[in-house]
Design a protein that fits this description.
The chain has about 130 residues and is an alpha+beta fold. The protein contains two helices and five strands, in the order βββββαα. It has one domain. About 25% of the residues lie in helices and about 25% in strands. The strands form two sheets. It has a three-stranded antiparallel beta sheet with strand order 1-2-3. A hairpin with a 3-residue loop joins strand 2 and strand 3. The longest helix is centred in the middle third of the chain and has 24 residues. The protein is elongated, with a radius of gyration of 16 Å. The chain starts with a strand and ends in a 37-residue tail after the last helix.
């Protein structure tokens, strides 16, 4: 699902990792940060602890919305024969208000991507050990 990229000994950035066909992957920062001790690796969300009670629901809701958005865009791009790392990154850039919506997407066909996994989110400071 998501993974944590270590920023300091206390905080980690929560990034999105999407496995695409042809062994391509897209790693994208959500802009969210949390301390390692407050992250639930198994459930891919902020733990239910008193010290993060003021941000837990906000962060977890944002991650749920991001995941739903990525699933929707992935399927839409695949269906439209436009699935690519660049196009998915563009959609995330639009979602996070990093680019102008006018940018054009590169076209690819479904045949280039058949028989591959949809995607996988991974969150862990040592996320590579969890790659399947």
């Amino acid at each position: 699902m998501f993974f944590k990229k270590q920023v300091s000994s206390k905080d980690v950035s929560i990034s999105l990792r999407i496995l695409l066909p042809e062994k391509n992957e897209l790693v994208y920062s959500t802009g969210l940060k949390i301390s390692v001790k407050n992250w639930d690796v198994k459930n891919q969300q902020v733990r239910n602890r008193v010290e993060v009670s003021n941000v837990k629901d906000v962060i977890n809701n944002k991650l749920t919305k991001i995941k739903s958005f990525v699933e929707e865009k992935f399927i839409a791009l695949l269906t439209a024969d436009k699935l690519s790392k660049e196009n998915l990154k563009y959609e995330l850039d639009v979602y996070f208000n990093k680019v102008n919506v006018e940018k054009k997407m590169k076209n690819f066909t479904n045949d280039e991507f058949k028989n591959n996994k949809l995607f996988l989110f991974i969150l862990d400071t040592s996320y590579k050990k969890f790659i399947r």
